[in-house]
Design goal:
The structure holds two protein chains of two kinds.
Chain A (H helix, E strand, L loop, with lengths): L1 H43 L4 H15 L3 H11 L9 H27 L2 H9 L4 H31 L11 H12 L2 H30 L6
Helix pairs in contact in A: 1-2, 1-4, 1-6, 1-7, 1-8, 2-4, 3-4, 4-6, 5-6, 6-8, 7-8
Chain B lengths: L5 E10 L2 E11 L4 E5 L6 H8 L7 E6 L2 E2 L6 H8 E4 L11 H11 L5 H14 L15 H14 L4 E5 L7 H16 L3 E5 L3 H7 L2 E6 L2 E7 H6 L4 H11 L3
Parallel strand pairs in B: 3-8, 3-9, 6-7, 7-8
Antiparallel strand pairs in B: 1-2, 1-4, 4-5, 9-10
Helix pairs in contact in B: 3-4, 3-5, 4-5, 5-6
The chains are: A mainly alpha, B alpha/beta.
Chain lengths: ~220, ~250
């Protein structure tokens, strides 16, 4: 136990460096995936045929390719087309784009679950499509999509570890480097696991808070 | 005499191969209260939804105060702000309070100053007897109260006319009266109203005219006391007998 604590205090600063990048990758790609996911979802429900088809093709393509392959593609293949990104940029964009597909399906499910009478009521007081979405449908859909959104947040935080494969020095990569140079596998990976858990728990708390915040006015 | 507020001329509509409206011609004058009655599936609600552009129609023309209703043209927004609608299932916004429901249209569609809209919203809720429910969410209200909020929401748009689509059909029997009372007071104030209803008592007392629809055509129309009191067409007679004496 004493060795564990001694090693831990020694490794922790390095691992915390990794935590910083894990958070940057996770939060950056979360923001990107949310925005893109919402765009795809709104295209799907726009009622404009070709727009919906484009979104559908994008979403299905993204869902059908492993995230790891998408990361490799963005980091190793795009430079051949003159688009050179840093590892960090590639990780955020890669994870963000890949996850936008899952976000989109979640948002679409939430939007389509809202009673059509709400759309008609909004239209009947003269609201156009944009205003109906912004004032009537999305505020109600948020409540429905939050629980699965929390799921996606946690999954993204953990999947940010895939950025290690394209040399982003996030938590998993830092851990691997320390472990392979010290052979203290148990200490290192226990710490890594604990740090991921420590990041996930506040995230889950945040989602519960959001659920309470948007749950107002609903029948319990 | 001025042009009618709502004019329906030879309107036809089919759902796939099934014709729902087979050439409806009718009009509602300014300040007039017209009730649409008829068996379910006769096209009553469809005609109402066509007037507000919630539904398209295949042939004929609907004009509101001279403006033609085309559900997929930008002009429909203006028509809808002039033509409020009250739904069978209320369709209040559940995430907003009674007052927020009422002021939503004035503030976000008509861009009225917030304070002004709020004040008028409170007045309207008071008018429908809900001054004490301003901050209640729809989930905390009874069906009758929700429908009265919906009527206040319609009035907040300061419409030229209000369309009612079976406003009391989803209510418990003891709550029907409070909603009809509010509608009657609107009629007394001269509001133009087109009401799809099964409340024959309301139609008899409040309506200037009654249209009886069956199978997508207007079978009979005239002053309420004539159509309801002494119907001339056998289908009207049969319908009224079944509605007024169900067993």
């Amino acid at each position: 136990m004493q060795t564990f604590l001694r090693d831990a205090t020694q490794f922790l600063p390095l691992l915390l460096q990794g935590v910083k990048f894990t958070l940057i990758v996770a939060l950056g790609s979360l923001a990107l995936s949310t925005v893109l996911g919402l765009v795809w979802a709104l295209m799907r429900v726009s009622g404009i045929g070709w727009l919906g088809t484009i979104a559908k093709v994008i979403v299905n393509t993204l869902r059908g390719i492993p995230i790891l392959v998408q990361l490799f593609y963005i980091y190793f293949v795009l430079p051949e087309f003159g688009i050179a990104l840093t590892a960090l940029q590639a990780a955020i964009i890669g994870l963000g784009v890949a996850y936008s597909a899952y976000q989109s399906e979640n948002f679409r499910a939430g939007i389509e679950a809202i009673d059509h009478g709400q759309v008609e009521a909004a239209q009947s007081i003269g609201m156009g499509w944009g205003l109906t979405m912004r004032r009537v449908i999305l505020p109600q859909a948020i409540r429905l999509v939050l629980p699965p959104y929390g799921n996606i947040m946690v999954m993204m935080l953990k999947d940010s570890s895939q950025a290690s494969t394209i040399t982003v020095a996030e938590l998993t990569l830092q851990g691997t480097l320390i472990a392979s140079s010290t052979f203290k596998n148990m200490t290192v990976y226990s710490l890594v696991a604990l740090l991921y858990l420590a990041m996930c728990l506040p995230l889950m708390g945040f989602v519960s808070w959001l659920e309470r915040r948007f749950g107002k006015g609903t029948r319990r | 005499m001025s042009a009618p507020m709502i004019e329906i001329a030879g309107v036809t509509k089919s759902f796939g191969a099934f014709p729902v409206l087979k050439g409806i011609t009718a009009s509602v004058d300014k300040g007039e209260v017209v009730c649409l009655i008829g068996p379910s599936g006769s096209g009553k609600s469809t005609i109402l939804r066509c007037i507000n552009g919630l539904e398209s129609y295949d042939g004929g023309a609907i004009t509101i105060d001279g403006a033609r209703v085309e559900h997929d043209k930008p002009s429909i927004i203006g028509i809808r702000t002039a033509m409020a609608m009250v739904f069978q299932r209320f369709n209040l916004f559940p995430h907003r309070t009674a007052l927020e429901n009422v002021v939503e249209g004035p503030i976000f569609v008509k861009k009225e100053p917030r304070a002004e809209a709020m004040e008028r919203g409170r007045d309207l809720l008071a008018r429908v007897g809900l001054a004490d429910k301003v901050d209640a969410y729809p989930g905390q209200l009874s069906g009758g109260q929700m429908q009265r909020v919906a009527i206040a929401r319609a009035l907040a748009m300061q419409p030229k006319a209000i369309l009612f689509d079976e406003p009391t059909s989803a209510l418990d029997p003891e709550l029907v009266g409070e909603v009809l009372q509010v509608m009657k007071s609107l009629a007394d104030d001269g509001m133009t109203m087109l009401v799809v209803t099964h409340e024959m008592g309301f139609a008899r007392e409040v309506a200037d005219r009654v249209l009886f629809l069956d199978g997508g055509v207007i079978v009979e129309q005239g002053p309420a006391r004539d159509v309801l009191g002494a119907p001339s067409h056998p289908r009207t007679q049969d319908f009224l007998r079944r509605v007024l004496r169900p067993i």
